[in-house]
Write a structure and sequence with these properties.
Elements: H1 2-13, H2 22-31, H3 39-57, H4 62-70, H5 73-96, H6 103-114, H7 121-127, H8 132-168, H9 180-204, H10 206-234, H11 236-267, H12 272-283, H13 287-295, H14 306-331
Helix pairs in contact: 3-9, 3-10, 3-13, 4-8, 5-6, 5-8, 5-11, 5-12, 6-8, 6-14, 7-8, 7-12, 7-14, 8-9, 8-12, 9-10, 11-12, 11-14, 13-14
Amino acid sequence: MTWQIFTILGKINKKFSLKTTPVFESLKLLDNLELNFSAEALFILNITIAFIMFGVALQIKAEHFKRVMKNPRSTIIGFVSQFVLLPAVTCAVAILLRKYITSAIGLGMILVAACPGGNISNFISSLAKGNVALSVSLTAIATLSAIILTPLNFKIWGEIFLHFMSKINPDLFPELKIDPISMFVTVFIILGVPLFAGMYVNGKFPITTNKIVKPIKTLSILIFAGMVISAFASNYTHFINHIKYIFIIVLIHNGIALSTGFSFATLLGATRYDRRSITIETGIQNSALALVLLLATGIFPEKGIGGMAFIAAWWGIWHILSGLGIASLWSLKPVSG
């Protein structure tokens, strides 16, 4: 079914001119830029992500999984929206935008879509007067599942996208290879290890966990924000020259992500209370993980990924702004389950 859909898209797109646009040429320059990101900065970023995931795991309890078993409907809707629909829809959008984006930009969009929900999604669900218990449950399941599904989704949809791009315009096909095994190892180290460690601490020392969980969560967000600002500062000239295009792409992509969660939850009859959390969980992605995967040695080449990195980095800022904006609107109209 998936291949049939993309075959139809291919036939439609072949009717249009394959000439590149000024936007494409600008983004192509961005792809080939050498990013100013040292090995020391990458190490600090890895530690930061591990610390963030440890903080997320401190909030995960056995009761969250028990709650899913008792009433799985909304959780299943949220999970499918995030790990099935979002990567597929992102791939389709990237193909439709192929005259305006490079293959690296499209892969950056797919990589972000393949990541689990962001660590601030629970906070935003709370502000939006949504189902916080559902949000936490989705975060727990998505984070555990991401160890397998993030590399798998990126492999599947990334190769569909690259295959399509190579067919319609071979000259624009980059030498980017997708190695799901290397991705799995990296995801397990920076996501799985701190996740299991946090869950162990939570189960073994619940009183201590209750005291430290909020400060750790706040500190982790501040540290990551500092890292993103530092990365942008180191690449300020590149950022200024290309932000107008990256801004539009991320704006469209994030809007589609939020709309996917909202529409799918509405279509399947989720309550307004649950719908809010499902929307936020689908639209708030762990772009920090995407950034680490991009910069991790051995997964992607050192050159040709500038656009991917900027997509992930700007998404990390924009989804906070869009999430807070939606939460502010929804908070004015509280709903119940």
